[in-house]
Amino acid sequence: MKFFLDTAIIDEIRDANATGLLDGVTTNPSLIKKSGRDFFEVIAEIAAEVDGPVSAETVAADHETMLKEGLKCAKIADNIAVKVPLTIDGLKTCKALRAEGIMVNVTLCFSANQALLAAKAGATFISPFVGRHDDVGFDGMDLIADIRQIYDNYEFDTEILVASVRHPVHVLQSAQIGADVATFPHSVMQKLAAHPLTDKGLAAFEKDWADTGFSILD
Length: 218
Ligand code: G3P
Known about the structure:
The protein has 218 residues and is α/β, with parallel strands linked by helices. It has helices at 10-17, 29-35, 39-49, 63-74, 88-99, 112-120, 130-135, 140-154, 168-177, 186-193, 196-212; strands spanning 2-6, 24-26, 54-57, 80-85, 103-109, 125-128, 159-162, 181-184.
């Protein structure tokens, strides 16, 4: 499973990248606003920091303008994945950008039928928002399972990029279902590694080792 960080805060990306476990980054207009930085400047810095795909989102509603925006975003760096919304105009733009060999992440997906259309449009990634699905009383993981089944039925190459991940259980369940990617905030990445029994066991080892008076390096 690939891990992407869902942020435009460069310090968070550098910290996660230093683990050697980061496979890409996703951003969106809200995350760009949160960064307080110029769009092109921060996307270029992120794309230079990580080797994997970096999603940069278009903001136009119509296909013609969205395509111009996508082509401009793709020029920022070779590892840019242009993000387009799951609308008819977004699907048309996806198909056009893919014909140019540009990676496309189709976002704001909330149904398996939407995901089926994105795969038919040749999307590189599909971003179903599990947390927001949960927020309105549906089980976001059922959506991921449905998409996985459909994509496997027809051997679509589109990668399932689970988004709107709110906690480690979303990551666990996405991996159990066989999603290709999970993108999550820096805080969730920290929680993935944490376990109180690991901390407790480590403290006990450190105390007992100190009692031995032994040293490995000295
Ligand atoms: O990539 C989509 C993600 O940023 C949305 O997350 O928590 O606002 O639903 P959230």
